[in-house]
Amino acid sequence: MKTKTVKTIYWIGAVLTAAWFTASGLGELTNNPLVWGITVKLGYPPHFIYILGVAKLSGVAVLLTPNRLLRLKEWVFAGIFFDIIFAFLSKIAVLSFPATIDAIVAFIMVSVTYIMFRKLYPAVYVNQANA
């Protein structure tokens, strides 16, 4: 796959992920009844919802920073995956399978984006014993 194609797929995925998590984070910080209603129904306490909103918006800022903060982006991707997996598991336990469709779509979208991120910025491991 050509670098230009990889970059295009990555940035489309990063922007869509950022839009998704910005909307979610703002909903959590502004007490949006839809977001809060579902999250409280899943059993999460109100203080956690605010923390999650701040974390999501901070992650979006890092995710949209081009060619910088690469190690921090790894942590952002990890946080996004944890958020999606916990949302999926919580929804399947409390609501039902149809409520998990958004988490499944998000997981696929973020997985493709992360794969493109790794193609753009391959991890380089150095053996400290030989360095």
β-strand amount: under 5%
SS summary, helix count: 5
| Assembly state (oligomeric) | single chain
Which radius of gyration do the C-alpha atoms yield?
17 Å
Gap from first CA to last CA: 32 Å
- The stretches of 5 or more residues where confidence is low (pLDDT under 50) are none
| Relative helix content | over 70%
Describe this structure in words.
This protein is 76% helix and 0% strand. The chain is mainly alpha-helical and 131 residues long. Helix 1 (3-29) packs antiparallel against helix 3 (46-63) and helix 4 runs antiparallel to helix 5 (101-120). The two termini are 32 Å apart. The mean pLDDT is 95.
Layout of helices and strands:
Layout: H1 3-29, H2 33-41, H3 46-63, H4 70-94, H5 101-120
Helix pairs in contact: 1-3, 1-5, 3-4, 4-5
What are its keywords?
single chain; 131 residues; mainly alpha; 5 helices; 0% strand; elongated
Quick rundown:
With 131 residues, this protein is mainly α. It is built from five helices and no strands.
